[in-house]
């Protein structure tokens, strides 16, 4: 099984590059790296109200499971909608054949925007969508980036990871949010 930290090339101006590397790497425990962090499952407003605005602890997502998780700058944005999510959606059967329990998409968005976007992409049946409404998850992993120059504010780098029982086996981070070289489904499939 391959373990890797792969980086693409930069195209955004230096002010938007963010950190050189993430805080986490292959071998790290993703839950321990983001203690006390919970994500918000994509849902409608009414579902949010009826669930008492529940959140999902990271341990529930990763413990005892094989998970592919990918982060992206935001719902409804260009590369995210046209390339990143579709790459996972069209390869979902290949992930399942490799024993992956779930494929998760996470972005610094509220769960209601994530829900509407997942429905628009017709991807909700294949991929689990979660919001990181305050960016705490991405900040904990040092995968956050300030995209104010693009009028997006604090967001996530574009990245992907393969995680077994909470342990990161492979992590791929693009050098710029406009890049789509190392974080797509095809790359992570080869690392499982």
Automatic annotation (TrEMBL):
A GO CC term assigned to this protein in UniProt: mitochondrial matrix
One of the GO biological process terms: hydrogen peroxide catabolic process
Domain Thioredoxin: 28-192
Keywords of the record: Antioxidant, Mitochondrion, Oxidoreductase, Peroxidase, Redox-active center, Transit peptide
Cross-referenced PROSITE patterns: THIOREDOXIN_2
Gene Ontology MF term list: thioredoxin peroxidase activity
Enzyme Commission code: 1.11.1.25
Keyword hit for Mitochondrion: yes
Record localization: Mitochondrion matrix
EC top class named in words: oxidoreductase
Reaction(s) catalysed (UniProt annotation): [glutaredoxin]-dithiol + a hydroperoxide = [glutaredoxin]-disulfide + an alcohol + H2O
Main subcellular location: mitochondrion
Catalytic residues in the record: 80 (cysteine sulfenic acid (-soh) intermediate)
UniProt key word Nucleotide-binding: no
Protein family membership: Belongs to the peroxiredoxin family. Prx5 subfamily.
SUBUNIT field: Monomer.
Role summary: Thiol-specific peroxidase that catalyzes the reduction of hydrogen peroxide and organic hydroperoxides to water and alcohols, respectively. Plays a role in cell protection against oxidative stress by detoxifying peroxides. Reduces preferentially hydrogen peroxide rather than alkyl peroxides. May be involved in mitochondrial redox homeostasis.
Name of the protein in its database record: Glutaredoxin-dependent peroxiredoxin
């Amino acid at each position: 099984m391959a373990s890797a930290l792969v980086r693409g090339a930069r195209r955004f101006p230096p002010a938007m590059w963010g950190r050189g590397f993430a805080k986490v790497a292959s071998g790290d425990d993703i839950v321990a790296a983001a203690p006390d962090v919970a994500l918000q499952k994509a849902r409608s407003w009414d579902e949010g109200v009826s669930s008492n605005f529940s959140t999902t602890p990271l341990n529930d997502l990763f413990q005892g499971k094989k998970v592919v998780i990918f982060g992206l700058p935001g719902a409804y944005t260009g590369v995210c909608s046209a390339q990143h999510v579709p790459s996972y959606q069209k390869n979902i059967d290949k992930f399942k054949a490799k024993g992956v329990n779930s494929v998760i998409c996470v972005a610094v968005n509220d769960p209601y925007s994530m829900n509407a976007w997942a429905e628009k992409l017709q991807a909700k049946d294949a991929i689990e969508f979660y919001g990181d409404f305050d960016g705490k998850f991405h900040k904990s992993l040092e995968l956050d980036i300030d995209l104010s120059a693009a009028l997006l504010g604090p967001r996530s780098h574009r990245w992907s990871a393969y995680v077994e029982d909470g342990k990161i086996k492979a992590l791929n981070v693009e050098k710029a949010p406009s890049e789509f070289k190392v974080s797509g489904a095809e790359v992570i499939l080869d690392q499982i």
